[in-house]
């Protein structure tokens, strides 16, 4: 499959090409919505402790429940003084392949502030677009044209090293960033660019889905937002611009958007690929 042209597809887990020989359980299809395309959101598959009870609980962690324009959201903040950020991939084999839960197996929960899905992925669960893990570039920057949200220009890159995190549109990233960052993920579209909403995003378009994104504020904190109910691109973009007041924000994905918040026990079970891991220093 040419993922440069078709990163947005319905792919049953049974057709995944996996390196391991283990039989894989059936999974939910990966669904991406166009900006003007109305779709139903996929049902949340969360383990015990997630859902409304977890969202309503008082959290002493970095993730808090909030609401914007009548839509429930979870807002997680990464502070460079308290946290580090890295990129990783969900496992492509095993009993919980393609999930945050599968990635979390055997890890020390006390080290984790939260984990959220990163940019979009192809049918092998690998990143579509620029992706750097532990300073190792796994996928080069994609400046091509195609259909779907990823190719709605300008798209962008969330990246960083040594606690300095940034979001740039892909062209600016190519022109101005010479050193390879410790982590990076490309996705699209940009939700907010230099304080302005993406020009193609409607105020409240017909496409409603569970969605997530990330923005970096003037102090250098990274704000991760995931909706707990379907919302439009415009609503998500306005939350970043008007409530969080970030100059740049990047859409990460929709319908498969997932969060692990150890403080509340929330563990979303949707099929994911690239991950952004926020650890406690």
How many β-strands, per DSSP?
17
Provide mean pLDDT, rounded: 84
Oligomer, anyone? single chain
Helix content: under 10%
**Radius of gyration, rounded?**
17 Å
Strand coverage percent: 25-35%
Principal-axes geometry comes out as globular
Describe the structure.
- This protein has 281 residues and is mostly beta strands.
- It has one domain (13-280).
- It has four helices and 17 strands.
- It has helices at 52-56, 100-104, 170-176, 233-243, and strands spanning 63-68, 71-78, 83-89, 112-117, 131-133, 136-139, 156-161, 164-169, 183-187, 190-193, 196-197, 211-216, 222-227, 248-254, 259-261, 266-267, 274-280.
- The protein starts with 51 loop residues before the first helix and ends with a strand.
- Residues 1-31 and 36-58 have low confidence and may be disordered.
């Amino acid at each position: 499959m040419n993922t440069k042209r078709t990163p947005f597809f319905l792919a049953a887990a049974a057709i995944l090409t996996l390196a391991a020989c283990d039989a894989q359980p059936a999974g939910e299809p990966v669904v991406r919505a166009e900006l003007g395309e109305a779709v139903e959101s996929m049902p949340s598959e969360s383990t015990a402790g997630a859902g409304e009870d977890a969202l309503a609980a008082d959290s002493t962690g970095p993730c808090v429940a909030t609401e914007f324009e009548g839509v429930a959201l979870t807002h997680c903040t990464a502070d460079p003084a308290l946290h580090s950020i890295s990129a990783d991939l969900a496992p492509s084999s095993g009993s919980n392949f393609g999930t945050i839960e599968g990635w979390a197996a055997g890890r020390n929960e006390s080290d984790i502030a939260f984990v959220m899905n990163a940019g979009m992925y192809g049918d092998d669960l690998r990143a579509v677009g620029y992706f750097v893990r532990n300073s190792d570039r796994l996928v080069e920057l994609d400046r091509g044209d195609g259909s779907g949200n990823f190719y709605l220009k300008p798209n962008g890159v969330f990246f960083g090293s040594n606690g300095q995190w940034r979001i740039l549109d892909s062209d600016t990233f190519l022109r101005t960033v010479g050193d390879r960052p410790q982590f990076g993920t490309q996705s699209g579209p940009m939700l907010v660019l230099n304080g302005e909403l993406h020009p193609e995003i409607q105020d409240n378009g017909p496409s409603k889905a569970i969605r997530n994104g990330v923005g970096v504020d003037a102090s250098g904190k990274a704000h991760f937002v995931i909706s707990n109910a379907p919302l439009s691109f415009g609503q998500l973009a306005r939350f970043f611009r008007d409530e969080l007041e970030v100059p740049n924000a990047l859409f990460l994905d929709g319908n498969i958007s997932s969060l692990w918040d150890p403080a509340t026990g929330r563990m979303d079970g949707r099929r994911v690929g690239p991950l952004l891991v926020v650890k406690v220093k």
